[in-house]
Automatic annotation (TrEMBL):
Record's keyword terms, sorted: Cell membrane, Membrane, Transmembrane, Transmembrane helix, Transport
Lineage top rank: taxon: Bacteria
Family, as annotated: Belongs to the drug/metabolite transporter (DMT) superfamily. Small multidrug resistance (SMR) (TC 2.A.7.1) family.
Pfam family, one: Multi_Drug_Res
Membrane topology label: Multi-pass membrane protein
Keyword match Repeat: no
Listed transmembrane segments: 33-50, 57-77, 83-103
Protein name: Multidrug efflux SMR transporter
Subcellular location: Cell membrane
Main subcellular location of this protein, as a coarse class: membrane
The organism of origin for this protein: Cryobacterium sandaracinum
Length: 107
């Protein structure tokens, strides 16, 4: 259960990071609201997951998922140019997240 919550929290990290960018320094209401709600839920989920998953592993997975999804979202919706190198590097991040899960399961 902790891993599922951690993954969902990583997804919410991408949501709040994207909303933060769209809030224009908190001058736009709805992106600011989405940012605040997603931030609280994301941090709460991370804290919950860290009861069963070590801090280093949980944080690395959370950041990795959030970073990968934030860049993918920006590339898909045109805010950032896509390139083969970026896609390969994002796949590397995902591979590292999956690897951490398997290492954690072995302990």
């Amino acid at each position: 259960m902790s891993w599922i919550i951690l993954i969902m929290s990583g997804v919410l990290e991408a949501v709040w990071a994207t909303a933060l960018g769209k809030s224009d320094g908190f001058t736009r209401l709805w992106p600011s609201v989405v940012f605040a709600v997603a931030l609280v839920l994301s941090m709460g989920g991370l804290a919950f997951a860290m009861r069963d998953i070590s801090t280093g592993t949980a944080y690395a997975v959370w950041v990795g998922i959030g970073a990968a999804l934030t860049v993918l979202y920006a590339m898909v919706f045109g805010a950032e140019p896509a390139s083969l190198l970026k896609i390969v590097l994002i796949l590397g991040l995902v591979g590292c997240v999956v690897g951490l899960k398997f290492v954690d399961a072995a302990h």
